Amino acid sequence: IPLSMFFNTTTCLLYTSTIYFSFFFFLMIRRPPRSTLSSSSAASDVYKRQVKMHQQMGLNMIRVWGGGLTERPEFYDACDQLGMLVMQEFWMTGDNNGRWAGSFDWPTDHELYLACALDMIHMIRPHPSLILWCGGNELWNVNQQPNVSSADPGDPAVQMRLLSNLKQLVQTHDPGRPFISSSMSNFTDFDPEFALAPKDGNYGINSAESYFSRNPGLYFANRSSMSSLESLGFQPEIGSVSTPVVESMQRFMSQAVLNHFPRNSSSPIHPVWQWHNYEPYRSPDGIDQLFRFGHPESATEYCMHAQMAQLMQYQSLYEGFQHKAWIWYTAVLFWKSQSPWPNLRGAFYDHWLEPTGGFWGVKAAAGERIHVQMNLQSRGLAVISRSFDSIQAKASWSWWRPWNSSQVGAFHHSQQLVIQPNGVTDVRETVQFPTSEEDVLVLRLQLVSSNCILSNNEYWVAPQGTAPEESAWARLRQWKPKASKVALNVLNVTTVQRPDGTISSHLSLNHSRHGQPIALMTRLKLVYGTNKDIYQDNYNDNRVLPTWWSHNYFSVLNEETKHVQFEC
User: Fold this and answer.
1) pLDDT, mean of residues 248-276
2) How many CB atoms lie within 10 A of CB 330?
């Protein structure tokens, strides 16, 4: 790579508002001029960035929702280039095509609708990323009795004829690609020839442990668990919370509104927060997954607690589903992974392409080709392999106290494992919480083969059992007054600017002071600015977005060095 120029760090700031620590690394770069790109090239750049976000997390499919539209050709180009599969739906949804509202007779002009559908088929069928056609979102099978509130819901048979014509179009003009009529239908009389799933959801936060049960967060009408529903293998959508970082929140909320952040689980929600689709953090087990880290005293604290809760939520969601890959599940799709407008529900990165803690939770679970993880219910270990080769390796784990970075006991090792290709290998040994400890600990996992580290993973773990766990999280909040700043040293920085203007850098961080707390939730941020701007703290949210980090929201132990790469 041609080396055109070097940059050096100007300063680094470190501060804390609770037991986690945010470390900001500043690199001086000039703000680029306003874009003069054509609309086509600008669209291509936007799509590539969005698709790359999904690729960086380790996801491999994007669903184009039936209540929306056909994306521009640049979207499918980006998916082709970045190896992202596409599930493409036509333009119908149960939200307004008869199931819950609107009419089964819509659209009224079937001839025009089918002509538009044929245009879309011709436009995107050459793309290798296209893997599946779907007639629409959550449509209703004619053989089932719809329950609609519309005064004139129309005739479900009309919609079925349109779906039949769509299927014929696909089979004629794009033979070989599968077509399914609906993403979801109904579990009482499920027809797998009509829909991918008998049920989808849920759309709120769940306890991290619940994702290791079958069909987490789903209940029958009598509130009994849907864990017995075996026909739900392809989960077409599941959703949960989303809160951007405070700098992004300040872009679409005034400070006065932002200061009305929820103070506890029963706080009234400000109308502006509701307008942006606020989703509470209280899970069905009655625990608020945000306030378990303490009651925030500022909007900045609230947003940081939210990043912690999102990281735990989405790491456990994807680890829970992939632990039962090809046993219970064949796929899980998230609603909605991106943020089409500034919102507080269901997104892994915000409207300005700043990742949330949820992004890094997904990446922690799905971003490795070989991945070691823990079942949060049984405390058993498993290795998830996306490799086509069988591998021999050993798993190891260790416990650490967050408040002084001291190790609890010795390192533990599994027996030699034969990791099966493209599957799940359970580890015989289980992880035992140290009996001498009553507080939340950091658990580090590694998978090692021939002295090569294949996988790293980390959890915050409390003693098992309702009462011990609740009191442990309560003590976690009590550490807040004792928390102090942690000195992280920047050992070296190597930066190059490529001919296309892309900046690529590598930096090393070291936590060198013995006895200090673990630097939990270390956040790196790149900004435009000068020394004067940074020292006066008035750089006015000059973040460089997007910045592609190899790691973020990570922990650094005493005497540990962390290597991070980034591009912008």
Assistant:
1) 95
2) 11
Of 490, 491, 462, 496, the closest CA to residue 476 belongs to 462
- Please provide residue 345's backbone torsions phi and psi, each rounded to the nearest 5 degrees: -155, 130
Half-sphere exposure of 389 (CA within 13 A, CB side): 5
> How many degrees, rounded to 5, is the angle at CA 90 between CA 84 and CA 94?
115
Q: How many CB atoms lie within 10 A of CB 2?
A: 7
Distance CA 332, CA 352 (A): 25
| DSSP string across 369-409 | SEEEEE-TTT-EEEEEE--SS-EEEEEEEEEE-TTT--EEE
**For 138, left (φ over 0), alpha (ψ -120 to 50), or beta?**
left
Q: Shortest CA distance to 200 belongs to which of 86, 92, 93?
A: 93
Which runs of E-coded beta strand occur in 144-276?
Answer: 179-180, 182-184, 195-197, 234-238
Under 8 Å CB-to-CB from 265, ≥6 apart: which residues? 280, 281, 282, 288, 291
Query: Would you call the peptide bond into 156 cis, given omega within 30 degrees of 0 as the criterion?
Result: no
pLDDT one-digit tens code per residue, 383-415: 999 999 999 999 999 999 998 899 999 999 999
Give me the count of residues in the chain: 568
Of 310, 305, 301, which is closest to residue 259 (Cα–Cα)?
A: 301
Distance of alpha carbon 527 from the chain centroid: 24
Q: Which structure tokens are listed for 125?
A: 């069928």
Please report, to the nearest 10 degrees, the dihedral formed by the alpha carbons of residues 420, 424, 427, 432 taken in order. Answer: 160
Q: Confidence class of residue 538 from pLDDT cuts 50, 70 and 90?
A: very low
d(CA 163, CA 181): 6
Q: Which two tokens stand for residue 482?
A: 């004792």
pTM of the model: 0.92
Residue 335: both structure tokens together: 């609603």
* Burial (0-12, 13-18, 19+ Cβ within 10 Å), 122: exposed
510: closest CA among 548, 457, 564? 564
* Cα–Cα distance for residue pair 232/184, rounded to 1 Å: 10
Strand partners, 24: 13
Answer for the pair 99, 151: CB distance below 8 angstroms, yes or no.
Answer: no
pLDDT one-digit tens code per residue, 35-59: 433 455 678 899 999 999 999 999 9
Active-site residue set? 138, 237
| Unique residue bearing structure tokens 């010795």 | 410
Res. 513: pLDDT tops 50: yes
pLDDT greater than 70 at residue 311: yes
